[in-house]
Amino acid sequence: MCDGTVAAEGGLAGAPSACARIRRVARALGKRSPSTLRISLRERFVPYFAAILACWSLWVALTWPGALRDDTLAQYLQSSDIHNYYTQHPLFDTLIFGLFWHLGDALGSPLTGLGLYTATQVVLLAAGCALALCYIRKLGTPRWLLGIGLVYLSTSYVVVGATTTMSKDSLHTVFFLPMAVIFVEAALTRGEVLRRTPVACWFALLVFGSVASKRTALLIALCSGICLVLACRKGRRLRAAICILVGILVAQCVFAPLAASLTHANRSPSREVWGYITQPIAQIAHDNPSAISPSQRKTLNKIMDLDEAAANIRATRTNETFQTLRTDPAPSANEKLAALKVWAELGVRHPGEYWKAYSGPIRGWWDPRVNFSYPTDADYLFSPGYLRQWSSYLTAPQYSGDSEEAKERSLAQITRDLSPLMGTSNKPQWKKSALNHVRTWVRTDNPLTSMALYVTWIPLLTIVSLAAQAALRALRRRRGVAGDAGEGDAVEGERRGMWPLFAAASLLVFTVLSLYASPEALFWYPIPVYFCLPLFTALPFVRAGDEIKRQPAK
């Protein structure tokens, strides 16, 4: 048994034993250093920011000037007047990307604009990560947890790889990460922090940026916002609700219509939610077409092309089925209701096919064997297949028609139009070799690049930990133990103590649920989750009762 001092054979009597040294290290790592956010920012923001930037700098150098997502190239076609603006992708993102591309054009090349965007995004994301770490330190979490968070944000591939991608998901994270910090603090202080006008204004502004930059953020903000309002003290609920509603309303009712009007954007129909209807129906039509009666088929064909959906269905995504929905003319409300009735009837009779249809698109969110790698340049978007896809964006009369001559003209024109963006894969050999080694490492049965680890299992462990604490508090309350809260706060701490923590975690929960509701498990979608995980995994380590007595961040 280790007593801290033993005389080692042949050594000095009374020398500290290995067990004593281990205990000292454990105490140091487990030590908590709660402080105000102002002090934490003053003492730690610059070191955290510098450490993160230093670690990211190698990846920035390898991938410079950055990589594009496929949707981003479609946004380039809009901002370059090659195609009309449309609302399928947030105009907020398209206009910001366009600002950098136009700036790059003024300096000689849109790739210069891409590099400027990459540098700006890297700096803002590093600042957001440093802010999150300072806030985690302010909460008084153990040092070992803070250290893991710093290492994760500085070196994890799922975080670092996203920093140099020009995508709406990375841009959304620039706003979502600091918004999440204020959201958590507002929940833990039960709205007290929002009494400060600058904090409330920043919160509303970041909610606006989050909602304007990603369509699914609207529902996330509404659902988690309700939890936040309920967690606030009665006198603070109105202010919290106003902050959230102002951000949402300005994004949806002011900016979106104004941007659409100024850009003359075509309104894109929102059809993704219908994937829950079209996917299982197409699955039955593909596997067991006789299960659908002629009358049911007639009803379904009024809202979709059932044969095309059955022929093109893919197990891992719903795009091929919901894209067969009829839009010209659009089905009536009665026709949609009749189709929903058929969908329900088929689900009752064929639950196995429905399970097969629904489980395929979400597999990547829960299966640790599914991993991914980020693109490291934009040239993969200029393959022959992609160029044919981009050529369909040309709508001038000379490019219309199905003749081979028209297709060749459109392909040659789109190649000329996109040539300023080509060449990002022309890197020195040492960069290519390094990137190939990274790509091999991340794609070879590597659990650290599994989306499921960050989307499902770590968040689930966080929620289970909070639930276990809630169960323990309930047990202590039944036994009449006041716990860590002071005598005056004991009853309130035991009765309401966990709700602020659950309200804070609701932002993570609804973000994850939005991923499970997406058309496919695409690695771009969880980027905000990757960056915010250290913030939410710190919640189970907030001391019992602290959330009742906590003073708002200063």
From TrEMBL:
Protein name, as recorded: Sortase B cell surface sorting signal
Source organism: Bifidobacterium panos
Cited Pfam families: DUF6020
Segments traversing the membrane: 45-64, 114-136, 143-164, 217-233, 240-260, 451-472, 498-517, 523-542
InterPro entries (UniProt xref): DUF6020
Superkingdom as given in the UniProt entry: Bacteria
Keywords: Membrane, Transmembrane, Transmembrane helix
